[in-house]
Amino acid sequence: MTVCAVIPAAGLGTRLGADLPKLLLRLSDTETVWSRMRRVLSVLDHLHVIASPAGFPLITHALKTDIARGFASVSLQPEPRGMGDALFCAYSVWSEAQAIVVVWGDQAGLSSETLQKTVRRLQGARQRVVLPQVLMENPYVDYVFSEDGQLQGVRQSREGDIMPGYGWSDVGVFGLTVSGLSDAWQRYRASAPEGTETRELNFLPFLPFLARESWDIQTFTVSDSREARGINTPEDLTFFREQLTEISP
User: Which GO terms describe its molecular function (predicted)?
Assistant: First the structure.
């Protein structure tokens, strides 16, 4: 099975006060967010990063060796219209793969174990979503399931939803088979509302939409809640810099 990593990395991290993409943030003298993610993702067939106009030259320069040998590529999201828009802006790059693994561009805690489990569950599938999850306190997002385990919806703190004290968060990693995915996205975007706060066409509610379209939604539990943490604030960045040696990629 041909699997492509798709990494939306247009965000600069406004709350961080950063002047470069979060993907390129330095975690130590020798490590960046990208170097850690690349080490985990190197088992896949291709790595594709989606950048903003400002971040495009910086990311292209940082990935120049992998780009030169055809292992990585970078494309542009002209305007910040959400992660779903970013993903499908790059459809021509990953459309020939059999599956994609979407990874947010600030997942410094991504583990090899989570990636490998995700890819294994995509093997041989035609219309499947693999959603690694962690049960955690004060989740940033929370996936809602029916009593029989069917994915029904998702709450998002960033859109002003009322969040539970404990909930099932994702870890910024999503496995999807490619067959039929673009057509499903076009149906979704035809009726999906913009986010209440961000005014973006969000990617996460697309997953319950796929469940309603009879896609096979597979979940598994990640034990380390640090994998769910992105880098959105100075405190997040400090957290990863201090715990870098304790988190195994």
Answer: nucleotidyltransferase activity
